[in-house]
Amino acid sequence: MEDSGEVLIEEESAMAKQLMVVFSNSAEGKDAEFNEWYDRAHAPDLLSIDGVESCQRFEIANPEGATHRYLAMYELTRDGNEIMGDLMEGMASGKFEASDTVDPNSAVIGFWNPR
Question: pTM of the full predicted structure?
Answer without folding.
Answer: 0.83
